[in-house]
């Protein structure tokens, strides 16, 4: 009989429950008798020993339910080795909870920071298997993370809804989407929603080029322009600043987000009315789309196979449409960025979409 601990860590997404269900169904199928322990609110539950004993019943009926039945929280990796306010050594505490429950494996569903912590625990001697969660699709080593397609669906829907009203009023619309460091959601939703301009962190923009793109549309007799802008979009000028200088600049920015800042600049330069829409956390909400349900189930089954084979220290990944796994130490700490040379970017440009570069 195996004893499995499980936690969901970092920002939530639509497909966490579907993935846990996949792991549990797979393990029960492969192992028969399995005991599950769910840690509450991510690594916090593992540190402070907050867990619940779960049975297969707890994972029934959750394929379509967004959020996470375990709860989640952000426990920054850089603070993992820093004792908490009561002097608790978090790493030792996690190891001792794992040992106390006599676990055979800890299953971690998480994004970049959570994978770093999973790798650290693996290096500390725990058996760990992880799964690639994030709407940002920015985990190195996997072509696809679960949650991404559901977020793109919602972001695209936001752009679709803006389209009709933008056309009626002849306005410029900015739809600001999630993605501080990477622009995958904005890039995909921008193309899917027919945005005219896409601005992402990896391709710094020149404001004059953005304005030219808007004016070009007006000259072509198109009254409205839609910009899909990632929350981390950055101008060429600001991209030259050091991290510290940029942080200071942001702290003193007159506008609350890049979307509002651009809106003011575009209004001034073109005289056109500009409106900003920010779908925000709705992008992480609701039910997973069928594509996510499929990959969550497949990734979950693959994690169950790894555990069944006692092949630990791995993150399950997708390459193309194939599921496999890579050592945690290979992926931990690396992000998968959009490259200006990616085919998808070049094709978007061929379609006439401006990246403001
Ligand atoms: O990492 C997922 C994500 O949704 C990012 O796209 C976004 O920038 C961030 O989390 C928001 O974090 P929080 O939920 O802590 O505000």
From TrEMBL:
Pfam family, one: PFK
Site positions per UniProt: Important for substrate specificity: 113
Residue positions binding ATP: 11, 74-75, 111-114
GO BP term, example: canonical glycolysis
Reaction(s) the record says it catalyses: beta-D-fructose 6-phosphate + ATP = beta-D-fructose 1,6-bisphosphate + ADP + H(+)
Lineage summary: Bacteria, Bacillati, Bacillota, Clostridia, Lachnospirales
GO cellular component: 6-phosphofructokinase complex
Domain Phosphofructokinase: 3-307
Pathway: Carbohydrate degradation; glycolysis; D-glyceraldehyde 3-phosphate and glycerone phosphate from D-glucose: step 3/4
Quaternary organization: Homodimer or homotetramer.
Protein species of origin: Candidatus Anaerobutyricum stercoris
Binding residues annotated for substrate, in chain numbering: 134-136, 171, 178-180, 231, 275, 281-284
Similarity-based family: Belongs to the phosphofructokinase type A (PFKA) family. Mixed-substrate PFK group III subfamily.
The name this protein goes by in its record: ATP-dependent 6-phosphofructokinase
Chief location bin: cytoplasm
Keyword terms, alphabetized: ATP-binding, Cytoplasm, Glycolysis, Kinase, Magnesium, Metal-binding, Nucleotide-binding, Transferase
Binding site for Mg(2+): 112
């Amino acid at each position: 009989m195996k004893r499995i601990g499980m936690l969901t860590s970092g920002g939530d997404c639509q497909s966490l429950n579907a993935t846990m269900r996949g792991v549990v169904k797979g393990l029960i199928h492969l192992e028969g008798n399995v005991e599950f322990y769910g840690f509450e609110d991510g690594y916090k539950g593992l540190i402070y020993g907050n867990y619940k004993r779960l049975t297969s019943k707890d994972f029934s009926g959750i394929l379509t339910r967004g959020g996470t039945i375990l709860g989640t929280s952000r426990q920054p990796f850089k603070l993992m080795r820093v004792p908490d306010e009561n002097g608790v050594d978090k790493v030792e505490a996690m190891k001792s909870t794992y040992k106390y429950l006599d676990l055979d494996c800890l299953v971690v569903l998480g994004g970049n920071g959570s994978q770093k912590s999973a790798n650290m625990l693996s290096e500390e001697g725990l058996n760990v298997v992880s799964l690639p969660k994030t709407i940002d699709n920015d985990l190195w080593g996997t072509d696809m993370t679960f949650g991404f397609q559901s977020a793109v669906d919602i972001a695209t829907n936001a752009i679709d809804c803006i389209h009709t009203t933008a056309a009626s009023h002849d306005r410029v619309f900015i739809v600001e989407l999630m993605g501080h460091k990477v622009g995958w959601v904005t890039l995909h939703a921008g193309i899917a929603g027919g945005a005219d301009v896409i601005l992402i962190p990896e391709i710094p923009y020149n404001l004059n080029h953005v304005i030219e793109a808007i004016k070009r549309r007006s000259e072509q007799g198109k009254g409205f322009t839609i910009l899909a802008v990632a929350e981390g979009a950055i101008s060429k000028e600001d991209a030259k600043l050091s991290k510290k200088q940029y942080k200071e600049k942001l702290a003193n920015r007159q506008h609350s987000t890049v979307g509002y800042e651009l809106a003011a600049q575009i209004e001034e330069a073109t005289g056109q009315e500009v409106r900003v829409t920010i779908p925000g956390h709705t992008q992480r909400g609701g039910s997973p789309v069928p594509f996510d349900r499929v990959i969550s189930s497949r990734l979950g089954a693959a994690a169950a196979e790894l555990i069944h084979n006692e092949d630990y220290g791995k993150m399950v990944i997708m390459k193309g449409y194939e599921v496999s796994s890579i050592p945690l130490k290979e992926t931990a700490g690396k992000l998968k960025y959009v490259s200006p040379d990616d085919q998808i970017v070049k094709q978007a440009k061929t379609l006439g979409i401006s990246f403001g570069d």
